[in-house]
Amino acid sequence: MKTLFTTLIILGMTFTVSAQKKYDNIGSFGEYKSDWALVELDKKYGFINDKGVEIVKPIYDKIAPFGEYKSDWALVQLNNKLGFINNKAKEVVNPSFDKIGPFGEYKSNWAEVIVDGKKGFINTKGKFVFEEKSHKKAKRLALSYN
Question: Which contiguous run of DSSP H or E holds residue 9?
């Protein structure tokens, strides 16, 4: 029993030391997701899981908490462009937008997006719904369905 306890302590210390060598900073587990910790490397952010496995590479300039836009999505920023990752570590909306509004403002499953001054909408599946040429019509349609 004593040997098992000692082995566990040494393994835990080894993981902590090796992870600290790889990243500039490691956040607390559970701040974003119960078994994930935010990591920073060269002022870029990603996530590791509770086994120390990198599940989201530290490539993002910023990562917002999950649930601010959609319950299982976190807003990410990369080179001043916005997108989303989900709680399965998948990039569901490529960071290509200058602005992303809240879902449901015009229609329950739509968020208004702006890219290069052009407006459109994305849905909760991360798909582009309407481009600017249809924007006013889309807003009217969305408002009529709410």
Answer: helix 2-22
pTM of the model: 0.76
pLDDT at 37 over 50: yes
Per-residue DSSP letter, 102: P
Which residues are CB-neighbours of 85 under 8 A, at least 6 positions away?
56, 63, 73, 74, 76, 91, 92
Domain map (residue ranges) of the chain: 1-60
The two three-digit tokens of residue 61, written as one number: 């300039």
Half-sphere exposure of 60 (CA within 13 A, CB side): 24
Average pLDDT over the chain, rounded to an integer: 83
Distance between CA atoms of 20 and 100, rounded to whole angstroms? 34
* φ, ψ dihedrals at 8, nearest 5°: -65, -40
pLDDT, tens digit, for every residue of 87-136? Answer: 999 999 999 999 999 999 988 899 999 999 999 999 999 898 876 554 45
